[in-house]
Every structure is written in structure tokens, then in C-alpha cells.
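Need a sequence for this fold. Nothing fancy.
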């Protein structure tokens, strides 16, 4: 009997390992996500949650909520920081890297192409119509994601009260300082309310985490080679710097966006005035009108809004400028997120941290519902938008339609019904 048990355990761990996607598959998955996650911020996170959790079942809803919680305390774009966290949880540091590259590559290529057209011919027609079609569906995706998360995360009236309070405060007050305060207060409430209920929670978490991560981390580490990810990452980054930044103007552009990325607390929307002050008022790289159009393109192209850095970089130094600005805006948050993810995984072994997370997760769900409200307000209030939103929500909740098809259909509807 003992031998049979051992064999079953071995086979199960091997099966779990085989379920982990390869790096090329992970890159392809996030490339598809990055091609369709229009609206940035919570819309991108919602698409990631829909595909990684609902469809592929690689992580849990709680994992996504933990990633969002962590990004609140770190600089950089929230959506791509969550992508880095998800990639790290699935395939370690290399998984984080390929996930980030996959999700930003489509938007980088698209916005660079649109920048070339804009600076040559002026505004691109039809872009606004696509955006008007996307917004109702993006709102539905965010609502559906928050609903699915709340069903599996909110267990009692106390967590419901935390989520409701967070949503109301963010809708009525808003602001980065409120977001920070909500995370801290919710964590303290969670520690106070749920610590007595810890029981076997710590052991269950360890068992689940060992089963999910067991064997995977060792095999991934062995595949990374002698120097390890950090040394290879540094050497690769140094090589890119040497290759790209032969001109002092590119170095200056890169360092400017490095500095901007380290000040982007609370997401890109909070940092837009800061970016405008540096790019338009201080550096005079763009006019106010050009900057506004670049931000608009960042909103209506898939991926994070800070991909507008490529638009700015293209104006300053062409293609290489777009690459330099994009590297500058995403590189520091990537490394900070990797370090933060390591600390979070280590700290979650504490029953005190687990109790605090039971307060933070409902607050994050409230923030997601608030994001749906805020995004929805940017849509035109008419029959077309209401129909697109309703059909999209039904398709997601009742029929589990893939968000990629929904977004493609919404874009077509925008072009069809909003033109002229």
C-alpha cells in the first residue's frame, strides 16, 4: 500500500508540473491578451483574470487580488505590474519577463505606427469610433471580473462591508492618497477581524502552495543556468543600453522615463499631470495638443496607458526613441515588482499577513467595481452603448464567451454605429 501511495503522489506532482505552460506558450497567451485588452488599467487586469484564472485555471482569484494589492504600494503602471506578478507566480522570473514583453508588444507596435502616421499626416480617423465601441464592453468585463472575484472571495458581511465602503469612497472621493489609506486600513481591519479565525488556514495555504509550486520552482531554477536570472537579466539590459544608447539624446530620454516610472504611484492616470509637466512644460518635447493626442492613443490602444511613452519617444528620436522611452517606463517597475512578489510570497506564510489579506482583498474588489463605474462614465449614454454593455455582460456571465471575441465585436460595432 505504501508503494502505491508513493507512485500516486509522484504521478500527481508530475501532472501538476506538466500543466504549467511553457515560456513560449506564456508569451503567446499574453501576446493575445495584449492585443485585445483595450482600455488599460482594470480592463487589462480583467482580461488577464478571465483567461489565466477562468479559462486556463493557472492561478486563483485570490492570487490576482494579491497582485493588485502589491501594486498599490509600488511605482509603475498597475496593470503591467499585475502581469509581472502573474507571470512570476506561473513561471518564475523568466515567466514574468515574457509575460510583460507579450502584453506590451502589440500596443507598442500599434502606437508607434500611429505616431508615425500622426506626425506625418495628422489625426487618424476612425480611432475614436473604435474607442466608443470598446468602452461599454470594457466596463462589462470589469463588472464581470469583480462579480466573479466577489463570489469566491467575500465570505461574510464584514468583507462585504469593506468592499462596499471602498467602492463608495473611490467613486465619491478618489485619489491616490485614499487608495493607499484604504489598503492600510483594510489590512488592519482584516488583521483585527480575522486573526482569531486563522485555525488551519496557514497549513492549508502551505499545502496548496507546495502542491502548486512544488517541483516547479526547482525545475525552473535548474533550467535558468549558472549565472541565474538576475545576472543574465542585467547583462541583457546592459547590452540593450550599449546597443541602443549610442547618442546622448537617447540616454537622456531613457533616464527621463526611468525617473517618471519611479514616481508613478497609483497608476498612470494619477501620473498624467506629472508626465505633462516634464514632457511639455519642462522638456518641450511635445506641444499640449500632441501630448493630449498621445495620451488618447494610449487609452484606445490595447495595453497600459503609459505605452504613450512610445508616442513621445518617437517624436523625440524616432523608432529608437520609442524603444528607449518604453524601456525606461517599464524596466524599474518590473524589477521592483519581482522583489515585491518574493517578499509577499514569503510573508504570506504568516497567519497575521493572511488575516490582513482577508481585509485587503475585499477592498480591492470594491476598487474594481469603482473602476467599472468610472470607466463606464466615459461611454456615450445611448441605446447603442447600453445594448453593447448588456450583451457583453450576458455573454461573460451566462455564456462564458472569450473576452477577445467580445472586444473584436465591440470594435466593429463602434465603427458601424458611431461613424459620422
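Here you go.
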Amino acid at each position: 500500500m505504501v508503494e502505491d501511495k508513493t507512485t500516486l503522489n509522484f504521478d500527481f506532482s508530475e501532472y501538476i508540473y506538466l500543466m504549467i505552460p511553457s515560456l513560449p506558450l506564456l508569451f503567446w497567451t499574453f501576446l493575445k491578451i495584449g492585443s485585445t485588452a483595450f482600455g488599460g488599467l482594470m480592463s487589462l487586469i480583467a482580461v488577464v483574470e478571465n483567461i489565466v484564472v477562468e479559462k486556463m485555471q493557472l492561478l486563483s482569484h485570490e492570487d490576482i487580488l494579491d497582485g493588485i494589492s502589491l501594486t498599490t504600494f509600488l511605482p509603475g503602471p498597475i496593470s503591467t505590474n499585475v502581469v509581472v506578478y502573474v507571470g512570476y507566480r506561473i513561471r518564475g522570473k523568466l515567466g514574468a519577463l515574457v509575460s510583460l514583453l507579450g502584453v506590451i508588444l502589440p500596443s507598442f507596435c500599434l502606437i508607434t505606427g500611429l505616431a508615425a502616421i500622426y506626425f506625418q499626416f495628422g489625426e487618424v480617423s476612425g480611432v475614436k469610433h473604435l474607442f466608443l465601441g470598446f468602452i461599454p464592453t470594457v466596463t462589462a468585463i470589469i463588472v464581470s471580473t469583480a462579480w466573479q472575484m466577489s463570489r469566491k472571495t467575500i465570505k461574510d458581511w464584514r468583507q462585504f462591508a469593506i468592499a462596499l465602503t471602498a467602492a463608495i469612497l473611490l467613486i465619491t472621493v478618489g485619489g491616490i492618497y485614499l487608495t493607499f489609506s484604504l489598503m492600510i486600513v483594510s489590512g488592519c481591519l482584516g488583521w483585527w477581524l480575522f486573526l482569531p479565525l486563522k485555525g488551519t488556514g496557514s497549513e492549508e495555504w502551505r499545502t496548496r502552495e507546495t502542491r502548486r509550486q512544488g517541483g516547479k520552482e526547482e525545475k525552473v531554477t535548474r533550467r535558468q543556468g549558472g549565472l541565474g536570472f538576475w545576472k543574465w537579466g542585467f547583462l541583457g539590459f546592459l547590452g540593450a543600453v550599449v546597443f541602443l544608447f549610442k547618442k546622448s539624446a537617447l540616454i537622456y530620454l531613457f533616464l527621463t522615463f526611468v525617473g517618471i516610472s519611479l514616481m508613478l504611484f497609483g497608476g498612470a492616470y494619477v501620473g498624467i499631470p506629472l508626465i505633462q509637466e516634464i514632457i511639455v512644460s519642462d522638456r518641450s518635447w511635445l506641444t499640449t495638443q500632441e501630448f493630449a493626442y498621445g495620451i488618447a492613443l494610449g487609452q484606445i490602444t490595447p495595453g497600459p496607458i503609459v505605452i504613450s511613452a512610445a508616442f513621445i519617444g518617437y517624436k523625440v528620436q524616432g523608432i529608437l526613441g520609442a524603444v528607449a522611452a518604453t524601456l525606461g517606463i517599464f524596466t524599474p517597475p518590473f524589477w521592483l515588482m519581482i522583489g515585491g512578489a518574493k517578499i509577499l510570497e514569503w510573508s504570506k506564510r504568516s497567519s497575521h499577513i493572511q488575516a490582513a489579506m482577508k481585509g485587503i482583498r475585499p477592498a480591492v474588489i470594491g476598487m474594481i467595481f469603482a473602476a467599472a463605474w468610472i470607466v463606464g462614465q466615459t461611454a456615450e449614454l445611448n441605446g447603442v452603448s447600453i445594448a453593447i454593455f448588456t450583451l457583453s455582460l450576458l455573454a461573460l456571465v451566462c455564456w462564458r464567451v472569450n473576452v477577445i471575441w467580445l472586444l473584436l465585436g465591440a470594435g466593429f460595432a463602434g465603427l458601424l454605429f458611431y461613424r459620422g
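For context: Confidence is low (pLDDT under 50) at residues 1-18, 197-227.
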